Amino acid sequence: MAKSIVIIGAGIAGLSAGCYAQMNGYSTKIFEMHDKPGGLCTAWQRKGYNIDGCLHWFVGSAPGLGLYDIWRELGVLQGQNVVNMEQFYRIEDSKGKVFNVFCNIDRLEQHMKELAPEDDRFIGECTGAMRRFTRFYMPADKAPELYSPFDGLKLLLKMFPFFGALRKWGRMTMDDFGMHFKNPLLRNAWQSIWFPEFSSIFMLITIAYLHNKQAGYILGGSTKISQAIEKRYLQLGGEISYKSRVDKILVENDRAVGVRLADGSEHRAYYVVSAADGHATIYDMLDSKYNNDKIRAYYEKFPIFPPLVYIGLGVNRSFNDFPQIVSGLILSLEKPVTIAGEERKSLSVRIHNFDPTLAPAGRTLLTVLITSNYPYWKSLREDISRYKEEKERIADAVVSLLDKRFPGLAAQVEMRDVATPVTFHRYTGNWQGSFEGWLMTPQTVTLNMSKTLPGLDCFYMAGQWVQPGGGLPSGAMTGRYVTQMICKRDKKRFVAMTP
């Protein structure tokens, strides 16, 4: 009889763990608090618009990366339409100057040297690193915990040519990276693309993947991805119970034996895998009984991706005058504006004119991401009327700012939707409303977190809280990894198959 596995959460990590477990002969059931799959890889409908809450680019969209094989095994890429970005970001300063972060490295280098000949040397260094990383592929097929000495030696030899570049750029934050430019447009632009404490290595590698056309965009966005993996899981014989919040992980004699739902029902299994929020898993579902100083330090000291206010706008406008296939637009404001209690000097906008599936014909979805403070919104929501008023004020402010850049836009807005950090927490349980787990800083970029907890048997964790950097790749990979670890424990040969 097949051993059973209970999986908490039908996000990408939970679905991945379920798919691979089913492929390897286990009987699995996923319990999901929401009414749809995907977790943070999600979208929602408003007045005919599909507001995508996740996808910007999709690492592993083409052959050459190990992730490509994983996505194929999970049934994601089959039959999908993938477009490749021409520009990573377009940055417009308050004086009308424009810096285009082209995905083609040669074009990017030429553009930067034209804008800032005084930075010729550093431009050559960073674009040279991007070219080097076009040949850099981290293995994704095997859990690091299962590496043999021979595996480690092979990895060492494979990584050896990149050690210098990894060390140099991995230690450099985006703030430090920007400061290397004498030109104020480039300096401010690079510092605004990602969070200041973010490791620059992630940015360089991302542009390398975009250059190789291995990080395209799947038309239909997050919904297409989540539904594809859900379909694959169900076809493999797995079960999902939606609207089923897990309150506690059942433990007997320091062994996880199942889960108790919010409705009081208990569901037992040989193994338990939590692909849910890490903080909720450790501190709530397990009452912090299987914790140690190392894990506590993660949650007390490590920075997380800051929570977002996520504004969706449905606009009766085609935006044919704006370049298509641009991942994001960053607008520097003439004067700082206070939004959600904080002063803002720029606005990050995404014009989804490259994906006609997200809006009715002739119309366009715009999304605006504003970092915010979870306690601020948690306090506000104690008074629903104040909470709603603040959301409306933010929508008004954003529409007014965008109308200055795109005259006439304010009158063309026919849908407005504002999601806050509290919204993200309510629907996904993600700690402090963070959208992507641990921030990839120079301190965490090489960190390998444990997928088990001290003293607790038959229990595993998957997802963005056990792998810094977050995103869809961490979900798919760690779901695969915990299945490999279970197979190893049961002395079973791990198998993976493509439909």
Q: What topology emerges from the helices and strands here?
A:
Blueprint: E1 4-8, H1 12-23, E2 27-31, E3 43-46, E4 49-52, E5 58-59, H2 66-73, E6 82-83, E7 87-92, E8 98-102, H3 105-115, H4 120-133, H5 149-159, H6 163-170, H7 174-179, H8 184-193, H9 200-211, E9 215-218, H10 221-235, E10 239-241, E11 246-252, E12 255-261, E13 266-268, E14 271-274, H11 278-285, H12 293-301, E15 308-315, E16 326-339, E17 342-351, E18 364-371, H13 374-380, H14 384-405, H15 409-412, E19 413-419, H16 421-428, E20 459-461, H17 471-489
Parallel strand pairs: 1-2, 1-14, 2-10, 7-16, 14-20
Antiparallel strand pairs: 3-4, 5-9, 6-9, 7-8, 11-12, 12-13, 15-18, 15-19, 16-17, 17-18
Structure description:
The protein is an alpha/beta fold and 499 residues long. The protein has three domains: 4-40 and 60-79 and 220-303 and 437-489, FAD/NAD(P)-binding domain; 103-212, no CATH class; 308-428, no CATH class. Helices cover 37% and strands 22% of the residues. The chain contains 17 helices and 20 strands. It has helices at residues 12-23, 66-73, 105-115, 120-133, 149-159, 163-170, 174-179, 184-193, 200-211, 221-235, 278-285, 293-301, 374-380, 384-405, 409-412, 421-428, 471-489; strands at 4-8, 27-31, 43-46, 49-52, 58-59, 82-83, 87-92, 98-102, 215-218, 239-241, 246-252, 255-261, 266-268, 271-274, 308-315, 326-339, 342-351, 364-371, 413-419, 459-461. The strands form five sheets. A seven-stranded mixed sheet has the order 8-7-16-17-18-15-19. Strand 12 and strand 13 form a beta hairpin. Helix 4 packs across helix 9. The longest helix is centred in the last third of the chain and has 22 residues, at 384-405. The radius of gyration is 23 Å and the shape is globular. It starts with a strand and ends in a 10-residue tail after the last helix. The relative contact order is 0.19. The model has no long low-confidence stretch (mean pLDDT 94).
